[in-house]
Design goal:
The chain folds into two domains: 144 residues, 2-Layer Sandwich (Beta-Lactamase); 186 residues, Hypothetical protein af1432, CATH 1.10.3210.10. Helices cover 51% and strands 11% of the residues. It is an alpha+beta fold. The chain is built from 14 helices and seven strands. Strands 1, 2, 3, 4, 5, 6 and 7 form a seven-stranded antiparallel sheet that branches.
Amino acid sequence: MNTKNYLSPTKRYKLLISAVHSVYRLISSTFELKDLFPRLARLLCQIFNACGCEIVLFDSTSRYSVFRCEVGERKKYISDKKKRIIDRLEKNIAKRPAVVRNAELLAVPLICEDSGGVIIVKRKNEPAPFESFDQEVLMTLAEQVIVAIRNLQLVGEQQKIILGSIKSLVTLLDMRVPQEYAHSPYFRRLVMSIAQQMHLDPKQIESLKYASLLHDAGKIDIPPEILSKTSKLTPREYKIVKRHPARGAQILRSFQILKPVIPIIMHHHEKYDGTGYPSRLKKGQIPEGARVMAVADAFEAMVYGRPYRERKDILSAVREIKKKSGTQFDPRVVEAFLRVVKKIDTKKYLQRNE
């Protein structure tokens, strides 16, 4: 931000509002520190006409950094490893949080509840030195960043609690459901890879992460003799099996945070042509996450087999997925799956217990 002494108060106010709005939009659309900090650092370089920006978070002792992002004209460095602070400026700010400003550098401390950090912007060969207005702007933006960091930390803590509850449910399900119905350790990775290949937004990908663990939760109510049956199911038995998506959704409804996951679980057995269950939805009526899950689930069912069906080799399973593109599966999801499956280490994928 080229701030000159001759700028009127009105122009300075507009610059401040513009900067605050830009940072707010960035913060409100980013859900992880590792994504937020590089984008924020580049935005601050633009706002302050800087050649580089560093954002560092300290641990509670202020002797170690726990997250570091450095962005420059030709570099980007990100680390979430705990490292001792060796930079003199960072050490000083960690010990005694205070603003540091000279012609080519502006450093503003980040003061959180139980830890701290610093934002540093740098200029090189810039005729306009950092001045008091730059300092005021960065201090204002730092307050936004502190709130964003705390919110993301709270979300992270909440996710750990949720993941713990989910793992408990999965463990219970694994004890109840025959091993032949269990998914490989790579199933979640396959689901996530398809979603990323389709460029789904972070919230959708997060929901798919949870859904990949819980989509068969409703099978806990299916009698074991039906799940382990090696012959064709009777119409009555098949009717019981088809209840598991709705039952899974019902089990998880008490978890408010899992609300976006429920449509995926409820509809991952729908078919693109409208012949699936439980609601016979078709095409765009089927939640996008459920369409992703349908392809991944079918692929695993084929390569690992089921008590009533022999397993296929990976090549045959891929051919079957391609064959049913546009009927059972969303063609767009199939295209993403085909790109992902080329990168699969087939030997590892087929080792269920690895």
